[in-house]
Amino acid sequence: MLRDRWFRFLVCTCGFALVAWACLGPRCRDAEGFLAGRFCLAASAGIALLILGWAVATDWQRFAFWLCLSLVGQAVALQMIDAGPLIHYQHWRPLRHPWLFICLAAQSAAVIAGLRRRWPDIRTWLGRNFRWWQLGGVGVVLFLSGAALSRDKPAYVAEMLFAGLVQAVNLGGVVLAAWAVPPKSLTSLKEKFDRWLEPSSPDRFVAIGGIWVTTLAAFLSFCIYERHPHIPDEVVYLYQARYFAAGRLTLPAPEAPDAINVDLMTYESDRWYCPVPPGWPAMLAVGVLLGVPWLVNPVLAGCNVVLTYFLVREIYDRRTARLSVLLLCVSPWHIFMAMNFMTHTFTLTCALAGALGVAWARKTGKTFWGWLSGIATGMVILIRPLEGAVVAGVLGLWALGAGGRRLKSRCILAFTLGAIVVGGVVLPYNKLLTGN
Asked: Is the predicted pLDDT of residue 425 greater than 80, yes or no?
């Protein structure tokens, strides 16, 4: 109808105008001209109007409503967090702007009203697929992880309760959005999705995923992270990688150490050096030698996609492996950690390689895979020692038969020796640095 077209045009125009205002208007920028946190809310509201305008008078309008409510609701929730440009624990501050709290209350009322009609079906589905202790365990984990620790115990409990409310409301919105997908379209989408997960060239599917992650992380590292460390840990990793690349274990003492005091660096009378484990700086040194240290983590993240595919395929089936690749390719945390200079992406690479080595050693019985798994596990120890201990324990139990067939004795011996030899490099390294 003509009226519907005009209404769609009006809503979309308002959406475009709001996005443009968020991008260009001074109200969404700080004193230095950079985009401020409120940009997120304005842009999300504009995008929501565009989605609603597209879906008006179609079978997708109910889905669009719940999707947009969740989108704007998440943006509102982000405005209630005390983040800022400095490094500190981020806490909920819901009463800082009362109008945000009113928006959350309105979203909560809409979600509760929508779930009320669906509750009998939801309860039946939950009872059929989960046990009470499983739901309780998930709820406890979400509740306890919803807020950062605080010395003020009453404030901490209040934050957790508020975070639990926000999580529940947004989860309810997602459930209602999924429920509102038109049945005919859902069947069609499922068929297309199934065909997509079962391509004729699985290697090409995985390769595209790896290239996508590397390209996206590299783009963000170049344009957003500016190829530059932002926190003290990253600074010392890059320092250490640079003098590793120059063939040095330490640097000569600076003439005025107080003038260039860098966190996490050890200063002595004749030298200064970084005391952190050498695994990640050694890998980062490869990027330094090539002149592109900012590309190391993006490339490793792409490798993680490939390693995840092969590991999950060994444990489950090909469809589950492709689905895992898809989720990893769109994981914001995986992409974010891939664009910085932190240790986590390389740790994941080595842990995946270690697990894959155990899986292939069990499958083929070849000692080579035991060695590979042990070496990769030893590298985790050289990067993040506590995580290395966890990975060594888990893979060691897996190699001994927990959750599968026990490896051959020579493979277990290779795994053990590989982990000890590589992980033990930290001992002579510490000896060279400290004399102990």
From this structure: yes
In which residue are the tokens 């998930």 written? 138
Q: Please give the structure tokens belonging to residue 368.
A: 């080579």
Q: In what order do the strands lie in the sheet with 266-267?
A: 251-252, 271-273, 266-267
Total residues belonging to the chain: 436
Q: What distance in Å separates the CA atoms of residue 27 and residue 48, rounded to the nearest whole number?
A: 20
Tens of pLDDT along 276-316?
999 999 999 999 999 999 999 999 999 999 999 999 999 99
Q: Using CA atoms, how far apart are residues 146 and 12, in angstroms rounded to an integer?
A: 35
- d(C-alpha 31, C-alpha 47), whole Å: 25
- Of 74, 7, 80, 8, nearest to 44 by C-alpha is 74
pLDDT at 2 (0 to 100)? 65
Query: Above 70 in pLDDT, residue 322?
Result: yes
pTM (2 decimals)? 0.81
pLDDT at 331: 94
Query: In degrees rounded to 5, what are phi and psi of residue 224?
Result: -100, -50
Q: Are 11 and 56 in contact, with CB atoms under 8 Å apart?
A: yes
Degrees to nearest 5, angle at CA 250 with 248 and 254:
120
CA distance 294 to 221: 7
404 has a pLDDT exceeding 80 = no
> What pLDDT, on a 0 to 100 scale, did the predictor assign at position 415?
94
* Residue 200, pLDDT score: 58
**Whole-angstrom distance, CA of residue 338 vs CA of residue 218:** 8
| pLDDT confidence band for 56 (50 / 70 / 90) | confident
Q: Are strands 271-273 and 251-252 parallel, antiparallel or unpaired?
A: antiparallel
Do the Cβ atoms of 347 and 228 come closer than 8 Å?
Answer: no
User: What are the distances in angstroms from CA 18 to CA 8, 21, 28, 133, 290?
Assistant: 15, 5, 11, 46, 44
Q: What is the per-residue pLDDT across 176-229, written as a single tens digit (0 to 9) for each?
A: 999 998 888 888 888 887 777 776 566 788 899 999 999 999 999 998 888 999
Distance between CA atoms of residues 75 and 77, nearest Å: 5
User: Which residue reads 């890059």 in tokens?
Assistant: 238
CA dihedral 175, 178, 183, 188 (to 10 degrees): -150
Which of 405, 376, 402, 372 has the alpha carbon at shortest distance from 388? 376
d(CA 208, CA 311): 17
How far apart are alpha carbons 127 and 118 in whole angstroms?
14
Residue among 301, 334, 314 at smallest CA distance from 210: 301
String of DSSP letters for 139-150: HHHHHHTSS---
